[in-house]
Amino acid sequence: MKNKTLFATLIIIFLIFMFGDSMTTTPGRSSGNGNPAILLLLPLSIFFIVLTFQWFIVFKDKMISKKTVIILSLLVICHHVIGVYYQIMSFRSYRIFLAKVYEGQFGTTDWDYINSITSGLSIHINNQYFNINTYLLFLSLSLFIWLLSQMIISWRRKMREKKWE
Question: Where, by residue number, does the polypeptide cross the bilayer (predicted)?
Answer without folding.
Answer: 38-57, 69-88, 135-155
